[in-house]
Amino acid sequence: MRFGIIGTGLSARWFLADATVTNARVKAVYSRNAARGADYAREHGIPHVFDDLDAFAESDTFDAPYIASPNALHAAQSLRLPSAKKPVLCEKAIASNPRALARTQTTHHRNGLLPSAASRPSHTPSALAL
Fold it and tell me: Are 100 and 77 spatial neighbours (Cβ–Cβ below 8 Å)?
């Protein structure tokens, strides 16, 4: 599967590390900051960079987005992607309140999609210690 990543922080780096041991390929990155996105793409060999969320959402360079941006942006970003018929994998939390979660779920379901929340318990300090 081809992924596009929204965000360039720690969660995105963990996702990239996991993608290297699976059949997933990261083909695009979106960052609000074009220079940061370009640097991140160059560092990780990602061929496509976007600083416009609409252009990212409509791109055919990837099949599904992984949202790894700051939590406060998750709901708004995940609401933009279903209209492009892209299933969303969103780092937890997918929304900051029940109303935003319901809106996200309704929008995805209306487009024949199921939003998914990612969790990385294997990277938590307690899991690493075990």
Answer: no
Distance from C-alpha of 66 to C-alpha of 53, rounded to nearest angstrom: 13
- What letter would DSSP give residue 21? T
Tell me how far CA of residue 12 lies from CA of 23, 29, 94, 122, in angstroms: 17, 10, 15, 15
Per-residue model confidence as pLDDT tens digits over 40-57: 999 999 999 999 999 999
Question: For 59-71, how does the pLDDT look when each residue is reduced to its tens digit (9 = 90+)?
Answer: 999 998 988 888 8
- Selected residue with higher pLDDT from 87 and 53: 53
Predicted TM-score (pTM) of the model is 0.79
Query: Under a CB-based contact definition with an 8 Å cutoff, are residues 96 and 69 in contact?
Result: no
In a 3-state reduction of DSSP, which class is residue 20? coil
| Residues counted in the chain | 130
Residue at 3: amino acid letter: F
Tell the burial category of 114 from Cβ atoms under 10 Å away from its Cβ (0-12, 13-18, 19+).
exposed
Residue with tokens 């209209």: 83
Which residues lie across from 2 on neighbouring strands?
A: 25
Residue closest to 56 by CA, chosen among 25, 88, 100: 88
